[in-house]
Amino acid sequence: MRRTATAITFLFVVTGCTSYTHTEKANSQIAFGSEVAKQGLWREAQFRFEQAIAKDPTNARAHNNLAVALEATGEFARALEEYKKALQLGPNDNYIRRNYARFAEFYTSYTRTTGKAAGGP
Amino acid sequence: MPIGHRRVRPVLRALVAAAVAVGALLGAPPVSAGVSQVRLRLPLKPRLPLRGNEKLALAPFILVTEAEKARDKRLQNVDLQGEFHRFLKKQVDKKTKLEVIETPPEVRLPTQNLSELARATEFWRAVGASTGADIIVSGSLEFRIEDRSGYKTEEYVSPINGQTYYRQVYVEQTGFLFDIVFLVFDGHSGEKLLQDEFKDFRQTGGRRADELQGLFENLFSLENQILNLFVAREREADRYLFTD
Description:
- The complex is a heterodimer.
- Helices cover 79% and strands 0% of the residues of chain A.
- Chain A has five helices and no strands.
- Chain A has helices spanning 2-38, 42-55, 60-72, 76-89, 94-111.
- Chain A is globular.
- Chain B is of the alpha/beta class.
- Helices cover 32% and strands 37% of the residues of chain B.
- Chain B has six helices and nine strands; from the N terminus they run αββααβααβββββαβ.
- In chain B, the strands form three sheets. A five-stranded mixed sheet of chain B has the order 3-2-4-7-8.
- In chain B, a hairpin with a 6-residue loop joins strand 5 (150-157) and strand 6 (164-171).
């Protein structure tokens, strides 16, 4: 009886720890990515956020950070996709919503139709 | 004192053990809302798809506030056409590789109506042929000086009884409004390539603020937008980054 109880407790703790480690790894990638991003190393940050998403694809924060990194490196179409994913996963997160709104404003003006080319048909 | 320590320790140990057990059983780390703000420099594509080394002719602009000069003495001190041309030429020369040509002084706009000016294809083709310009810039300029002086409510703490009161204070202020509509034409076909409008409003203290200083404050605040018509520019933007 005592052995069974110990085994169940052990199993319970191990299961808990597995899920903790999984999220923790994604979080540590986010933490490291955000640190290097603050130093302007956006390619490295992008890689870290991609790693975080690979470990935890439902992490809205990782998708948001990846979107910011993609914006910083000029990959705006991909940034848009990532912002949308982040917003889908965390629809009530004010930071993600604000980022997305600001990006949408920029992206709209960026893709706005420009004038015709001089001397063109 | 040591006796007390001995008594407390087992209780603390039990509490820590309980906290660890609960944490492990829940299977999740504590959520912290670590967020930091980062500043990005985002590129702005030029509004006109140019090679970059075209010849750009600066044609006269329609002066919207010309009629008001007779009434407003301060407007008489500003040669809006001249100052704007000088500013634009200097900025384009300095920050782009476009070759700026001034149109000959005998070139007069065929109309003072902006819509008609935008449709005057023949006229712009002729200007392009005579100057050899690839693109021609024209449009309309509006510069207004407004007296914004008036009474404003101000908080006031009485030095006698320390209570807060509200009082009306007369504040002298001058507003400078600048509105520019850019028309860019193809020097070869005379067709309109682009039309865009930029506005700026500045307010300074004092009723007799210098009008030329006001004009240049307006112009420098619009500099990035104006140059972005011809060349790529950058703008700063803040974003939130999660830190854990």
